[in-house]
C-alpha cells in the first residue's frame, strides 16, 4: 500500500545536526508518545539509533512543522482517506459492493522457536564484520544497522528468547518497515480500516485481471468506477485464482500477519505482488536454480517453492535474519550462513562472489534503493552468474539519501552493456512499477 508517511531511509541522516538553533514548538495536551512512535517508524528508528532523545523532543523540534500525525487517524472522504496516496488504487472504493474487515493474526510462538533463533544468531555472528565493503551501511537501508537495539542486542548477546519474541510479531513491528507493512501500517489499519481494505481489494482485482479471470474495465467504454455486480468472492473465487496460478494463494501464519481473511487464513496485501511475480516467472520456465538479490522477508521464495528447485537469497545480514525466521517457521527446508546447504539458502550478499551459476536471477523492489556503485556491482555480477535476469522495480529516481538519488535499472543495464532486453511491461500489481526480462549477451 502506497502511503504518505516519511520514509525510513532518509530519517536518520536528515536528523543529524538539524536540531541546533531550532526553537521547540509546544507539545499538544493530547500527545501520546507511544502512539506517535507507532505512527512514525523513522522517528522510532532515530530514537533507537540515538539520533534524537524522545518522541516528545522530535515532535517539538520537527514533528509539528512537518505535519506528523500524533492522534489516531480518521480517514477523510478523498480516495485513500488522506492516509494512502490516491495512486494506490486503480479503482475507487465505489467499485466494491462491500469492504471486508481487516484481520490481525496474533503472534504464534512454538516449540521450535528457540532452536530456530539459535540458528539465526549463529548465522548472523558468522558474517558479522566480514562484509568486504561497506555497501550495507549506506543508502536507504543503512538505518537497519543502526536502530532496533533490542533486535541487535539479542543477536550480539545470543538471547534466543528475545529474538524469537520480536520475530513472532514481525509484520506488526517496525522490523518490517519498508519490507512489508509493519507497525505503522498496522496502527493505521486498526484506526482507519477502509483505505486498507480497499487497497487489498484493489490488489485482488488486479491479480484476477492479470490472470485473465476478470475483464479489464475501460474508461473509454462505459462507467469505469461503477460498482462491481456481485460479491468479492464472485469476482475472485480462490479456487479459480489458484487453478490459474498453479499454486495456493495462501500465506503462512508466521510473524503475526494482517490483511483480509481469504480461503483458510489471513492474506496480507503484499502477498499479491509476490504471488503474481511467482506466476510470471513460472511462465518463463521451470528454472531449477534461482537466485534472488534482496529477498525482502522471503515472500517471493515462499511462492516460488517447488520440489527439486534450489533457491538462494542474497541480502543484508539483518534481513537474512527475517528471511530465515519466516521461511523456517513456514516449514521450508532452509540453510543459513555456515550451515550445510538445503533447498533454500539464505546468505549474506557478498556470497554473490561465489563461483556458482544459476538459471535465473531476480530482483524485486530493491535495486533502486541501493547506493549506485553497489547496484552497478550487482548488475555486473548477475550477468556473470545467470543467463536471465528478471527485474520488477520502480524508476522514479527519487532522492535516496542526502548523498545520491535512487538508481534506474535500465540505466544501470545500459551502462553495463552486457545485456539485451527481451521484454518490458507495466507491472500489473502496482502502478509506477515495471517488469523486465534481460538476457546475457
Please provide a written account of the structure.
The chain has 441 residues and is of the alpha/beta class. It has 3 domains: 8-72, no CATH class; 88-106 and 179-271, no CATH class; 285-440, Vaccinia Virus protein VP39 (Rossmann fold, 3-Layer(aba) Sandwich), CATH 3.40.50. The protein has helices at residues 8-15, 33-39, 41-48, 55-66, 113-127, 149-157, 160-167, 182-191, 193-210, 232-235, 238-245, 270-284, 299-303, 317-329, 372-385, 409-416, and strands at residues 103-104, 258-262, 265-267, 289-293, 310-315, 334-336, 344-348, 360-364, 388-394, 419-426, 433-440. It has an 8-stranded mixed beta sheet, sandwiched between helices. A hairpin with a 6-residue loop joins strand 10 and strand 11. Helix 2 (33-39) packs across helix 8 (182-191). The protein is globular and about 60 Å long. The chain starts with 7 loop residues before the first helix and ends with a strand. InterPro entries: Methyltran_NanM, SAM-dependent_MTases_sf. This is Sugar O-methyltransferase. Residues 1-27 are annotated as: Disordered.
